[in-house]
Amino acid sequence: MSALAGFAKFVALDGLVSKGDPAQTATNITESADLFRFGVACLFVVIALDIVVAWGLYRVFSPAGKNLSMLTAAFRLVYTAVFMVAIGQLLRGLRLLGDDGYLAVLGADQLHALALLEVTAFNDLWMAGLGLFGLHLILIGYLAYRSGYVPRLLGALLVVAGLGYVIDGFGVMLSEGAWTDVASYTFIGEFLLALWLVIWGSRLAISESQHHEDPVATTR
């Protein structure tokens, strides 16, 4: 997911955008339309994987609190819905740079400006949606901390990572200018959770299949 989202965001999207220059941005996107579309497709795959991950994390952390784990999954699913809306902005921007006849009523400068505005709206919506993702991580961190089968330090780091996303979400909404990502410095807990699941996830699955009644106790 990180590889797909990173490629889409930093190569296929940001790599084609010239800040403050709608005409150059329009030229870049038009000349590299296939790359732009592939980036959008990668983001759709990320959304599908996000749904799978929401289900997987619910299974992992439901022994620590089923209702809270369900709420945690709900936050992630709502985030994916916001993400889907954000991706729609990119498709609209690409449509504005197409050759549809009805767009002839607008001048080239207007179309270029509107296309850049759609790309900017994608970034703003995604960043705002990451606030919901941050709440998801905070709850995951709390569940991890109280679970007894996940290192408590990892739980604390997940809460810190979640707070970074929440701050970014509110920062985009409340800041008048450009916002510097806080989550770029607080993401370590998210990475370590993925690493921990790769190493210990199979043991959790085996323990759950062998001991249905008390999966928490068997994984300590």
From TrEMBL:
Record flagged with keyword Metal-binding: no
A Pfam family per the record: DUF4386
Domain of life: Bacteria
Annotated keywords: Membrane, Transmembrane, Transmembrane helix
Transmembrane annotation, as ranges: 35-58, 70-91, 125-145, 152-170, 182-200
Keyword Membrane among UniProt keywords: yes
Protein name from the UniProt record: DUF4386 domain-containing protein
Species whose genome carries this gene: Lentzea indica
Lineage, uppermost ranks: Bacteria, Bacillati, Actinomycetota, Actinomycetes, Pseudonocardiales
